[in-house]
Design a protein that fits this description.
Radius of gyration: 38 Å
Strand content: under 5%
Order of helices and strands: HHHHHHHHHHHHHEEH
Number of strands: 2
Largest sheet: 2 strands, antiparallel
Helix content: 40-55%
Number of helices: 14
Mean pLDDT: 82
Low-confidence stretches: 340-380
Strand order of the largest sheet: 1-2
């Protein structure tokens, strides 16, 4: 460049460099808020997976019958629940849709029978019908109650409550897929990040140190900190873009097909093979021991030496004024403090104040406030008795502590 061109370039670089300040382009604020929003959405989608664990426990414990009819009811109920999750995941996950491209594939997999498929297709609706198997679940549970397989209305209510919780999660997944983060916000964040580094490319160029520009006294051939800033900001942006929709086919997306396999397997095991399948009830190992301790391994034995935490205020020391109980001025009472004896191992490290009869120990004493309402004629006798009892109590406590 000619000297005139160099001077013009340096002026442009200085002008662009002032826009790399976050006061002009709030990259941290915009990008941080975007990633936080995307992460909360991602975690909400993960916690909204319709897992059948609670439902299968309720079905196994409340739909009775060891015969073929009882087994058929339990397995059919859980099959309906898993069918509903397959239908909702099929409508939001690319992996599940490729696994079950048509409803016939779902029938072939055993989640639905041919007759159920006909009923499913006979009901016309313009909306997603993932809720139909859950309606079948509700009707079948009511029939099981009529047959006596569900023994009372409380058990039926428990089944319905768990079914509604399961349905709510299916519905929440559907709405997460339906209502996404506004596209304009993603565009704003992307434009902010890339425009920021576009200004950095020009504004953080090498300038002649002999001209005395502020911040350009040293020639850094490789812009190390700008490169680090680029890696952090761009990586942060890519993380936010990646977790917006975790139901794709990327390596970091949810393994929805494995989730389907796991759900159908454990639900059938819980309501079929494990129904009334109990081990013999025997006395436990510590049956004859009133006080026992659970053993530790050699690597964890040091944990037994740690003191047991009983609360942050358990060993707090308090003064005599803090222990005094305040009574209304219009009530005439005689107050007497009786510190309860603690374990001898706790030590006697307090201060005995005979003037008020308070034993100040390392732990917080428990006080018993004995209130009496004496007559005016017996005030002198009561005062003498209080002094005598006070002295005897102090002597008793001191002897016990020693």
């Amino acid at each position: 460049m000619t000297p005139k061109q160099q001077d013009l370039f340096e002026r442009i670089a200085l002008y662009c460099d002032q826009f790399t300040n976050t006061n002009f382009i709030p990259v941290l604020f915009v990008l941080g808020f975007y990633v936080t929003l995307a992460f909360n959405r991602w975690w909400g989608q993960y916690t909204s997976f319709p897992l059948p664990d609670n439902l299968m426990m309720v079905v196994s414990g409340n739909v009775h019958g060891a015969d073929e009819r009882g087994r058929l009811l339990r397995r059919t109920l859980m099959r309906y629940a898993n069918l509903s999750s397959v239908l909702i995941l099929r409508s939001i996950s690319t992996r599940v849709l490729k696994r079950f491209p048509t409803l016939e594939h779902i029938v072939e997999a055993g989640f639905m029978t041919t007759q159920e498929l006909k009923k499913f297709e006979s009901l016309h609706s313009d909306f997603n019908k993932y809720w139909m198997p859950l309606t079948w679940f509700s009707n079948l549970a009511s029939r099981a109650r009529e047959e006596g397989r569900v023994r009372d209305d409380i058990s039926l209510r428990l089944l319905m409550d768990e079914l509604n919780n399961y349905r709510a999660k299916c519905s929440l997944l559907f709405h997460y897929d339906w209502i996404s983060i506004p596209l304009v916000y993603t565009q704003v964040v992307t434009i902010a990040v890339y425009s920021f580094f576009a200004f950095c490319v020009i504004g953080r160029q090498f300038l002649n140190p002999e001209k005395g520009y502020s911040g350009h006294k040293l020639d850094m051939y490789v812009p190390v900190f700008t490169l680090m800033q680029f890696f952090f900001y761009t990586g942060w942006l890519k993380v936010g873009e990646l977790i917006i929709n975790p139901f794709g086919e990327d390596d970091d997306d949810f393994e929805t097909n494995q989730l389907i396999d796991r759900n159908i397997q454990v639900s059938m095991l819980a309501v079929d093979d494990m129904y009334q399948n109990l081990a013999p009830i025997v006395k436990d190992k510590h049956w004859s021991q009133r006080h026992f301790s659970v053993p530790y391994t050699q690597s964890t034995a040091a944990e037994t030496l740690r003191p047991v935490f009983k609360g942050s205020t358990f060993d707090m020391r308090m003064s005599a004024e803090d222990l005094e109980i305040h009574q209304p001025t219009d009530v005439s009472v005689n107050k007497q403090y009786l510190p309860l004896q603690s374990s001898i191992a706790d030590g006697f490290d307090g201060l005995l104040q005979k003037s008020k009869g308070i034993l100040h120990r390392g732990s917080l004493p428990q006080l018993i406030d004995i209130m009496t309402l004496p007559d005016e004629d017996d005030e002198a006798n009561v005062a003498d008795k209080d002094a005598t009892n006070h002295k005897e109590q102090v002597q008793t406590v001191v002897s016990a502590a020693l």
